[in-house]
Amino acid sequence: MSYEVLARRWRPQTFEEVTGQTHVTTTLGNGLRTGKLSHAILLAGPRGVGKTSIARILARSLNCDEGPTLKPCGRCSSCVEIANSTSLDVQEIDAASHTGVDNVRELRDSIRYVAAPGKHRIFIIDEVHMLSQAAFNALLKTLEEPPPRSLFIFATTDPQKIPVTVLSRMQRFDLKRLGSAELLARLRQITSSEGIELPESVLRGIIREVEGSLRDALTLLDRLVSGFGSSITEEAANTVLELVDRRILLDVLDPVLAQDPAAALSAIRRALEKGIAPTRLAADLLEEVRHHVIASIVDEPGELIQLGEEEVTEIAQRARKHDLETFQRLFRVLLNRSQELGLASRPDHALELAVVRLATLPSSEALSSLIARLEALESGGSPAPEGGGSGARGSPRAGGGRPRPATGFRGSAGPESPSPRRSETSKPPGAGAAPSPRRDPAREARLRAEAKSHPLVREVMDVLDAEIHEIRTYAPAPGAPTADGDPS
Asked: Edge-to-edge strand order for the sheet containing 121-126?
Protein backbone atom coordinates (compact mmCIF):
# COMPACT_ATOMS: atom_id res chain seq x y z
CA MET A 1 0.00 0.00 0.00
CA SER A 2 1.64 3.22 -1.19
CA TYR A 3 -1.36 5.48 -0.54
CA GLU A 4 -0.70 8.15 2.08
CA VAL A 5 -3.76 9.31 3.96
CA LEU A 6 -4.70 12.98 3.87
CA ALA A 7 -3.96 13.48 7.57
CA ARG A 8 -0.30 12.53 6.99
CA ARG A 9 0.05 14.14 3.59
CA TRP A 10 -1.21 17.47 4.90
CA ARG A 11 0.61 17.40 8.22
CA PRO A 12 2.03 20.91 8.79
CA GLN A 13 5.77 21.28 8.22
CA THR A 14 6.26 24.79 9.64
CA PHE A 15 4.66 26.88 12.36
CA GLU A 16 2.91 28.96 9.70
CA GLU A 17 1.07 25.90 8.39
CA VAL A 18 -0.40 24.99 11.79
CA THR A 19 -4.11 25.78 11.80
CA GLY A 20 -5.72 27.73 14.63
CA GLN A 21 -2.93 27.57 17.25
CA THR A 22 -1.29 30.95 16.75
CA HIS A 23 -1.12 31.59 20.49
CA VAL A 24 1.19 28.56 20.85
CA THR A 25 3.26 28.82 17.68
CA THR A 26 3.97 32.52 18.22
CA THR A 27 5.28 31.94 21.74
CA LEU A 28 7.46 29.00 20.70
CA GLY A 29 8.72 30.94 17.71
CA ASN A 30 9.76 33.85 19.92
CA GLY A 31 11.54 31.41 22.23
CA LEU A 32 13.49 30.02 19.28
CA ARG A 33 14.34 33.49 18.02
CA THR A 34 15.61 34.74 21.38
CA GLY A 35 17.18 31.47 22.52
CA LYS A 36 15.01 31.41 25.65
CA LEU A 37 13.21 28.13 25.14
CA SER A 38 12.31 26.03 28.17
CA HIS A 39 13.94 22.60 28.51
CA ALA A 40 10.54 20.95 29.23
CA ILE A 41 7.31 21.77 27.36
CA LEU A 42 3.81 20.35 27.77
CA LEU A 43 1.37 20.56 24.86
CA ALA A 44 -2.14 19.87 26.15
CA GLY A 45 -5.35 19.82 24.16
CA PRO A 46 -8.05 17.70 22.51
CA ARG A 47 -7.30 15.11 19.88
CA GLY A 48 -6.29 16.04 16.37
CA VAL A 49 -5.49 19.72 16.86
CA GLY A 50 -1.72 19.65 16.21
CA LYS A 51 0.11 18.65 19.40
CA THR A 52 2.44 16.07 17.81
CA SER A 53 2.86 18.20 14.68
CA ILE A 54 4.02 21.19 16.74
CA ALA A 55 6.43 18.95 18.68
CA ARG A 56 8.00 17.67 15.46
CA ILE A 57 8.21 21.14 13.93
CA LEU A 58 9.97 22.38 17.07
CA ALA A 59 12.43 19.49 16.90
CA ARG A 60 13.19 20.19 13.23
CA SER A 61 13.52 23.92 13.89
CA LEU A 62 16.19 23.23 16.53
CA ASN A 63 18.16 20.53 14.69
CA CYS A 64 17.86 21.79 11.12
CA ASP A 65 21.22 22.54 9.45
CA GLU A 66 19.98 26.13 9.13
CA GLY A 67 18.67 26.23 12.69
CA PRO A 68 17.62 27.30 15.07
CA THR A 69 15.08 28.62 12.58
CA LEU A 70 11.34 29.21 12.35
CA LYS A 71 11.26 27.59 8.90
CA PRO A 72 13.15 24.28 8.78
CA CYS A 73 14.37 23.52 5.29
CA GLY A 74 12.94 20.00 5.10
CA ARG A 75 15.83 18.90 2.88
CA CYS A 76 18.78 18.40 5.23
CA SER A 77 19.53 15.03 6.80
CA SER A 78 18.23 16.12 10.20
CA CYS A 79 14.87 17.29 8.83
CA VAL A 80 14.43 14.14 6.74
CA GLU A 81 15.38 11.81 9.59
CA ILE A 82 13.03 13.54 12.05
CA ALA A 83 10.18 13.34 9.52
CA ASN A 84 10.86 9.62 9.04
CA SER A 85 11.29 8.98 12.80
CA THR A 86 14.84 7.65 12.25
CA SER A 87 16.81 10.43 13.93
CA LEU A 88 19.15 9.36 16.73
CA ASP A 89 18.92 12.79 18.35
CA VAL A 90 15.11 12.95 18.36
CA GLN A 91 13.23 10.10 19.98
CA GLU A 92 9.46 9.89 19.88
CA ILE A 93 7.92 7.68 22.57
CA ASP A 94 4.34 6.50 22.94
CA ALA A 95 3.62 6.58 26.67
CA ALA A 96 0.52 4.42 26.18
CA SER A 97 2.79 1.43 25.42
CA HIS A 98 5.75 2.50 27.57
CA THR A 99 4.08 3.19 30.90
CA GLY A 100 6.49 1.61 33.38
CA VAL A 101 9.39 2.93 35.39
CA ASP A 102 11.83 0.73 33.45
CA ASN A 103 10.99 2.61 30.25
CA VAL A 104 11.77 5.90 31.95
CA ARG A 105 15.07 4.54 33.23
CA GLU A 106 16.03 3.61 29.68
CA LEU A 107 15.18 7.16 28.63
CA ARG A 108 17.37 8.58 31.42
CA ASP A 109 20.27 6.38 30.32
CA SER A 110 19.80 7.49 26.72
CA ILE A 111 19.85 11.17 27.58
CA ARG A 112 23.41 10.91 28.86
CA TYR A 113 24.73 10.53 25.32
CA VAL A 114 25.72 13.83 23.78
CA ALA A 115 23.95 14.96 20.63
CA ALA A 116 25.75 15.61 17.39
CA PRO A 117 27.60 18.94 17.24
CA GLY A 118 25.15 21.82 17.00
CA LYS A 119 22.18 19.56 17.69
CA HIS A 120 19.84 18.93 20.61
CA ARG A 121 18.74 15.73 22.29
CA ILE A 122 14.93 15.90 22.04
CA PHE A 123 12.45 13.48 23.60
CA ILE A 124 8.83 13.65 22.44
CA ILE A 125 6.53 11.68 24.75
CA ASP A 126 3.00 11.36 23.39
CA GLU A 127 0.03 10.72 25.71
CA VAL A 128 2.30 11.33 28.67
CA HIS A 129 -0.59 11.08 31.13
CA MET A 130 -0.50 7.29 30.59
CA LEU A 131 2.76 6.96 32.53
CA SER A 132 2.55 5.30 35.92
CA GLN A 133 3.12 7.20 39.16
CA ALA A 134 6.50 5.49 39.60
CA ALA A 135 7.52 6.50 36.07
CA PHE A 136 6.61 10.13 36.76
CA ASN A 137 8.64 10.05 39.97
CA ALA A 138 11.62 8.68 38.09
CA LEU A 139 11.43 11.66 35.71
CA LEU A 140 11.40 14.39 38.34
CA LYS A 141 15.14 14.84 38.81
CA THR A 142 15.86 14.70 35.09
CA LEU A 143 13.16 17.29 34.36
CA GLU A 144 14.51 19.61 37.06
CA GLU A 145 18.18 19.39 36.05
CA PRO A 146 18.43 18.07 32.47
CA PRO A 147 21.75 17.72 30.63
CA PRO A 148 22.80 20.62 28.38
CA ARG A 149 21.19 20.92 24.94
CA SER A 150 18.33 18.57 25.82
CA LEU A 151 14.61 19.15 25.45
CA PHE A 152 11.53 17.28 26.64
CA ILE A 153 8.26 17.80 24.75
CA PHE A 154 5.21 16.14 26.31
CA ALA A 155 1.83 15.86 24.59
CA THR A 156 -1.41 14.89 26.32
CA THR A 157 -5.17 15.00 25.96
CA ASP A 158 -5.69 14.72 29.73
CA PRO A 159 -3.33 17.03 31.66
CA GLN A 160 -5.33 16.54 34.89
CA LYS A 161 -3.76 13.11 35.27
CA ILE A 162 -0.23 14.49 35.34
CA PRO A 163 1.14 15.00 38.88
CA VAL A 164 1.55 18.57 40.04
CA THR A 165 5.22 17.91 40.78
CA VAL A 166 5.75 17.22 37.08
CA LEU A 167 3.60 20.12 35.87
CA SER A 168 5.60 22.56 38.00
CA ARG A 169 8.78 21.66 36.10
CA MET A 170 7.38 22.39 32.63
CA GLN A 171 6.02 25.20 30.52
CA ARG A 172 2.42 24.36 29.62
CA PHE A 173 0.71 25.33 26.37
CA ASP A 174 -2.99 24.61 25.94
CA LEU A 175 -4.12 24.00 22.38
CA LYS A 176 -7.74 24.78 21.57
CA ARG A 177 -10.36 23.08 19.49
CA LEU A 178 -10.44 24.48 15.99
CA GLY A 179 -13.29 26.80 15.16
CA SER A 180 -15.76 25.97 12.41
CA ALA A 181 -14.51 28.81 10.21
CA GLU A 182 -10.90 27.62 10.56
CA LEU A 183 -11.84 24.04 9.75
CA LEU A 184 -13.94 25.08 6.77
CA ALA A 185 -11.16 27.23 5.31
CA ARG A 186 -8.61 24.43 5.74
CA LEU A 187 -10.90 21.77 4.23
CA ARG A 188 -11.65 24.04 1.28
CA GLN A 189 -7.93 24.48 0.69
CA ILE A 190 -7.25 20.74 0.86
CA THR A 191 -10.17 19.68 -1.35
CA SER A 192 -9.22 22.32 -3.90
CA SER A 193 -5.59 21.20 -3.97
CA GLU A 194 -6.57 17.52 -4.18
CA GLY A 195 -9.16 18.14 -6.90
CA ILE A 196 -12.01 16.81 -4.77
CA GLU A 197 -15.50 18.00 -5.71
CA LEU A 198 -17.60 18.07 -2.57
CA PRO A 199 -20.72 20.14 -1.74
CA GLU A 200 -20.17 22.69 1.00
CA SER A 201 -23.11 21.26 2.94
CA VAL A 202 -21.12 18.02 3.29
CA LEU A 203 -18.05 19.94 4.47
CA ARG A 204 -20.17 21.62 7.12
CA GLY A 205 -21.63 18.26 8.09
CA ILE A 206 -18.12 16.88 8.55
CA ILE A 207 -17.21 19.87 10.71
CA ARG A 208 -20.22 19.27 12.98
CA GLU A 209 -19.11 15.66 13.42
CA VAL A 210 -15.45 16.17 14.36
CA GLU A 211 -15.82 18.58 17.32
CA GLY A 212 -12.90 20.80 16.34
CA SER A 213 -10.45 18.06 15.29
CA LEU A 214 -8.77 18.62 11.93
CA ARG A 215 -7.32 15.11 11.89
CA ASP A 216 -10.78 13.59 12.37
CA ALA A 217 -12.12 15.79 9.56
CA LEU A 218 -9.41 14.57 7.18
CA THR A 219 -10.10 10.98 8.21
CA LEU A 220 -13.78 11.37 7.29
CA LEU A 221 -12.78 13.04 4.03
CA ASP A 222 -10.52 10.06 3.30
CA ARG A 223 -13.49 7.71 3.74
CA LEU A 224 -15.41 9.61 1.09
CA VAL A 225 -12.49 9.73 -1.34
CA SER A 226 -11.76 6.02 -0.96
CA GLY A 227 -15.42 5.18 -1.60
CA PHE A 228 -16.43 7.60 -4.36
CA GLY A 229 -13.27 9.12 -5.80
CA SER A 230 -12.87 12.83 -6.41
CA SER A 231 -16.53 13.59 -7.23
CA ILE A 232 -18.88 13.06 -4.28
CA THR A 233 -22.60 13.84 -4.07
CA GLU A 234 -24.37 14.98 -0.93
CA GLU A 235 -26.56 11.88 -0.79
CA ALA A 236 -23.57 9.53 -1.06
CA ALA A 237 -21.67 11.46 1.60
CA ASN A 238 -24.59 11.36 4.01
CA THR A 239 -24.89 7.61 3.52
CA VAL A 240 -21.21 6.83 4.09
CA LEU A 241 -20.65 9.23 6.99
CA GLU A 242 -24.07 8.50 8.52
CA LEU A 243 -24.95 12.18 8.50
CA VAL A 244 -28.59 13.13 9.04
CA ASP A 245 -30.04 15.15 6.19
CA ARG A 246 -31.52 18.41 7.48
CA ARG A 247 -34.59 17.85 5.33
CA ILE A 248 -35.42 14.84 7.50
CA LEU A 249 -35.14 17.00 10.61
CA LEU A 250 -37.34 19.72 9.14
CA ASP A 251 -39.94 17.13 8.13
CA VAL A 252 -40.23 16.35 11.85
CA LEU A 253 -39.91 19.89 13.22
CA ASP A 254 -42.48 21.54 10.93
CA PRO A 255 -45.47 19.41 12.09
CA VAL A 256 -44.26 19.77 15.67
CA LEU A 257 -44.46 23.55 15.34
CA ALA A 258 -47.83 23.20 13.61
CA GLN A 259 -49.01 21.02 16.54
CA ASP A 260 -49.87 18.16 14.20
CA PRO A 261 -48.90 15.04 16.20
CA ALA A 262 -50.04 12.58 13.50
CA ALA A 263 -47.80 14.15 10.84
CA ALA A 264 -44.91 14.46 13.31
CA LEU A 265 -45.24 10.77 14.26
CA SER A 266 -45.23 9.73 10.59
CA ALA A 267 -42.15 11.86 9.91
CA ILE A 268 -40.16 10.45 12.82
CA ARG A 269 -41.10 6.90 11.81
CA ARG A 270 -39.89 7.51 8.24
CA ALA A 271 -36.62 8.85 9.62
CA LEU A 272 -36.14 5.83 11.88
CA GLU A 273 -36.87 3.46 9.00
CA LYS A 274 -33.88 4.93 7.17
CA GLY A 275 -31.70 3.29 9.80
CA ILE A 276 -30.83 6.42 11.78
CA ALA A 277 -30.12 5.66 15.42
CA PRO A 278 -32.74 7.19 17.76
CA THR A 279 -30.09 8.82 19.95
CA ARG A 280 -28.41 10.36 16.92
CA LEU A 281 -31.73 11.59 15.54
CA ALA A 282 -32.68 13.11 18.90
CA ALA A 283 -29.31 14.87 19.16
CA ASP A 284 -29.66 16.37 15.68
CA LEU A 285 -33.22 17.48 16.46
CA LEU A 286 -31.89 19.21 19.56
CA GLU A 287 -29.30 20.98 17.44
CA GLU A 288 -31.96 22.05 14.97
CA VAL A 289 -34.12 23.52 17.75
CA ARG A 290 -31.00 25.24 19.11
CA HIS A 291 -30.50 26.89 15.69
CA HIS A 292 -34.02 28.33 15.87
CA VAL A 293 -33.47 29.64 19.40
CA ILE A 294 -30.37 31.48 18.18
CA ALA A 295 -32.21 32.84 15.14
CA SER A 296 -34.94 34.17 17.46
CA ILE A 297 -32.37 36.12 19.51
CA VAL A 298 -29.49 37.14 17.25
CA ASP A 299 -29.82 39.52 14.32
CA GLU A 300 -26.96 37.84 12.41
CA PRO A 301 -27.24 34.16 13.38
CA GLY A 302 -24.82 32.99 10.67
CA GLU A 303 -21.88 33.49 13.03
CA LEU A 304 -23.31 31.00 15.53
CA ILE A 305 -25.05 28.57 13.18
CA GLN A 306 -22.60 26.58 11.10
CA LEU A 307 -24.80 26.18 8.04
CA GLY A 308 -24.97 27.65 4.58
CA GLU A 309 -26.33 31.15 4.02
CA GLU A 310 -29.55 29.88 2.45
CA GLU A 311 -30.17 27.48 5.32
CA VAL A 312 -29.57 30.20 7.92
CA THR A 313 -32.04 32.47 6.11
CA GLU A 314 -34.62 29.67 6.08
CA ILE A 315 -34.16 29.11 9.82
CA ALA A 316 -34.55 32.83 10.54
CA GLN A 317 -37.79 32.97 8.55
CA ARG A 318 -39.22 29.99 10.40
CA ALA A 319 -38.13 31.38 13.76
CA ARG A 320 -39.99 34.65 13.14
CA LYS A 321 -43.29 32.76 12.92
CA HIS A 322 -42.99 31.53 16.52
CA ASP A 323 -41.97 33.09 19.80
CA LEU A 324 -38.75 32.35 21.62
CA GLU A 325 -40.54 30.64 24.51
CA THR A 326 -41.90 27.98 22.14
CA PHE A 327 -38.43 26.89 21.00
CA GLN A 328 -37.05 27.01 24.54
CA ARG A 329 -39.80 24.72 25.81
CA LEU A 330 -39.28 22.34 22.86
CA PHE A 331 -35.57 22.17 23.66
CA ARG A 332 -36.14 21.54 27.37
CA VAL A 333 -38.70 18.79 26.82
CA LEU A 334 -36.69 17.08 24.07
CA LEU A 335 -33.51 17.23 26.18
CA ASN A 336 -35.25 15.52 29.10
CA ARG A 337 -36.80 12.86 26.90
CA SER A 338 -33.49 12.26 25.07
CA GLN A 339 -31.76 11.42 28.33
CA GLU A 340 -34.23 8.58 28.80
CA LEU A 341 -33.59 6.94 25.42
CA GLY A 342 -30.67 4.92 26.76
CA LEU A 343 -32.89 3.46 29.48
CA ALA A 344 -35.74 2.45 27.20
CA SER A 345 -36.01 -1.13 25.91
CA ARG A 346 -37.17 0.33 22.57
CA PRO A 347 -35.48 3.72 22.09
CA ASP A 348 -37.31 4.22 18.80
CA HIS A 349 -40.68 4.00 20.54
CA ALA A 350 -39.50 6.38 23.25
CA LEU A 351 -38.41 8.89 20.61
CA GLU A 352 -41.74 8.59 18.80
CA LEU A 353 -43.67 9.41 21.95
CA ALA A 354 -41.26 12.25 22.72
CA VAL A 355 -42.04 13.81 19.34
CA VAL A 356 -45.78 13.33 19.93
CA ARG A 357 -45.34 15.12 23.25
CA LEU A 358 -43.56 17.99 21.48
CA ALA A 359 -46.39 18.30 18.98
CA THR A 360 -49.04 18.39 21.74
CA LEU A 361 -47.40 20.92 24.04
CA PRO A 362 -49.76 23.85 24.69
CA SER A 363 -48.50 27.03 23.14
CA SER A 364 -47.07 29.74 25.36
CA GLU A 365 -49.98 31.99 24.35
CA ALA A 366 -52.47 29.41 25.60
CA LEU A 367 -50.65 29.14 28.90
CA SER A 368 -50.56 32.91 29.42
CA SER A 369 -54.25 33.12 28.56
CA LEU A 370 -55.14 30.41 31.07
CA ILE A 371 -53.08 32.09 33.77
CA ALA A 372 -54.78 35.42 33.07
CA ARG A 373 -58.17 33.78 33.36
CA LEU A 374 -57.16 32.15 36.61
CA GLU A 375 -56.01 35.53 37.95
CA ALA A 376 -59.38 36.99 37.00
CA LEU A 377 -61.18 34.21 38.83
CA GLU A 378 -58.97 34.67 41.91
CA SER A 379 -59.64 38.42 41.99
CA GLY A 380 -63.38 37.81 41.88
CA GLY A 381 -63.84 39.18 38.37
CA SER A 382 -65.93 37.59 35.65
CA PRO A 383 -64.19 38.01 32.26
CA ALA A 384 -66.45 38.01 29.24
CA PRO A 385 -66.53 35.20 26.70
CA GLU A 386 -64.18 35.47 23.75
CA GLY A 387 -65.25 37.69 20.93
CA GLY A 388 -68.08 39.73 22.43
CA GLY A 389 -69.35 42.28 24.91
CA SER A 390 -67.35 44.60 27.04
CA GLY A 391 -64.80 41.83 27.67
CA ALA A 392 -63.39 41.88 24.12
CA ARG A 393 -59.67 41.09 23.74
CA GLY A 394 -57.53 44.05 24.67
CA SER A 395 -60.12 45.79 26.86
CA PRO A 396 -58.37 47.43 29.82
CA ARG A 397 -58.95 46.48 33.39
CA ALA A 398 -60.69 48.89 35.66
CA GLY A 399 -58.24 51.40 37.03
CA GLY A 400 -55.99 51.44 33.97
CA GLY A 401 -54.27 48.08 34.54
CA ARG A 402 -52.92 45.81 31.82
CA PRO A 403 -55.41 44.49 29.22
CA ARG A 404 -57.31 41.39 30.24
CA PRO A 405 -57.69 38.61 27.65
CA ALA A 406 -61.26 38.17 26.49
CA THR A 407 -61.52 34.55 27.49
CA GLY A 408 -64.49 33.32 29.46
CA PHE A 409 -64.43 30.33 31.74
CA ARG A 410 -66.72 27.40 31.85
CA GLY A 411 -69.51 27.61 34.41
CA SER A 412 -69.52 31.43 34.66
CA ALA A 413 -72.73 33.37 34.53
CA GLY A 414 -71.54 35.49 31.62
CA PRO A 415 -70.35 39.05 31.27
CA GLU A 416 -73.51 40.57 32.75
CA SER A 417 -73.43 38.50 35.94
CA PRO A 418 -72.58 40.68 38.93
CA SER A 419 -69.46 39.76 40.82
CA PRO A 420 -70.29 38.35 44.25
CA ARG A 421 -67.43 40.30 45.80
CA ARG A 422 -68.67 43.58 44.30
CA SER A 423 -72.24 42.82 45.43
CA GLU A 424 -71.17 42.37 49.02
CA THR A 425 -69.07 45.51 49.16
CA SER A 426 -71.40 47.78 47.13
CA LYS A 427 -73.35 50.45 48.95
CA PRO A 428 -76.00 53.04 47.93
CA PRO A 429 -74.81 56.47 46.85
CA GLY A 430 -74.24 58.85 49.73
CA ALA A 431 -73.88 56.13 52.31
CA GLY A 432 -71.06 56.31 54.77
CA ALA A 433 -68.05 54.07 54.84
CA ALA A 434 -69.08 50.45 55.10
CA PRO A 435 -67.86 48.69 58.19
CA SER A 436 -65.09 46.16 57.58
CA PRO A 437 -66.69 42.70 57.29
CA ARG A 438 -65.86 40.08 59.85
CA ARG A 439 -63.89 37.08 58.71
CA ASP A 440 -66.02 33.99 58.34
CA PRO A 441 -63.70 30.92 58.28
CA ALA A 442 -66.51 28.60 57.24
CA ARG A 443 -67.42 30.84 54.30
CA GLU A 444 -63.76 31.19 53.23
CA ALA A 445 -63.30 27.41 53.31
CA ARG A 446 -66.44 26.98 51.21
CA LEU A 447 -65.20 29.54 48.65
CA ARG A 448 -61.80 27.84 48.44
CA ALA A 449 -63.45 24.47 47.85
CA GLU A 450 -65.62 25.95 45.12
CA ALA A 451 -62.57 27.57 43.47
CA LYS A 452 -60.66 24.26 43.44
CA SER A 453 -63.55 22.51 41.74
CA HIS A 454 -64.05 25.28 39.18
CA PRO A 455 -63.54 23.99 35.57
CA LEU A 456 -61.10 26.81 34.74
CA VAL A 457 -58.94 26.04 37.74
CA ARG A 458 -58.86 22.35 36.82
CA GLU A 459 -57.92 23.21 33.24
CA VAL A 460 -55.03 25.42 34.32
CA MET A 461 -53.78 22.91 36.86
CA ASP A 462 -53.85 20.07 34.32
CA VAL A 463 -51.78 22.06 31.85
CA LEU A 464 -49.26 23.20 34.44
CA ASP A 465 -49.03 19.70 35.88
CA ALA A 466 -48.10 18.32 32.45
CA GLU A 467 -45.44 21.00 32.10
CA ILE A 468 -43.96 20.42 35.54
CA HIS A 469 -43.55 16.72 34.84
CA GLU A 470 -41.22 17.62 31.96
CA ILE A 471 -38.81 19.36 34.35
CA ARG A 472 -36.51 17.08 36.32
CA THR A 473 -35.58 18.26 39.74
CA TYR A 474 -32.43 16.67 41.10
CA ALA A 475 -32.27 16.98 44.88
CA PRO A 476 -29.82 15.21 47.21
CA ALA A 477 -31.24 12.42 49.30
CA PRO A 478 -31.84 13.19 52.97
CA GLY A 479 -28.56 12.91 54.83
CA ALA A 480 -26.46 13.01 51.65
CA PRO A 481 -23.35 15.22 51.81
CA THR A 482 -23.57 18.58 50.09
CA ALA A 483 -20.85 20.39 48.18
CA ASP A 484 -19.23 21.60 51.41
CA GLY A 485 -19.10 18.06 52.79
CA ASP A 486 -21.83 18.53 55.42
CA PRO A 487 -24.96 16.39 55.32
CA SER A 488 -27.96 18.19 53.93
From this structure: 90-94, 121-126, 150-156, 40-44, 171-174
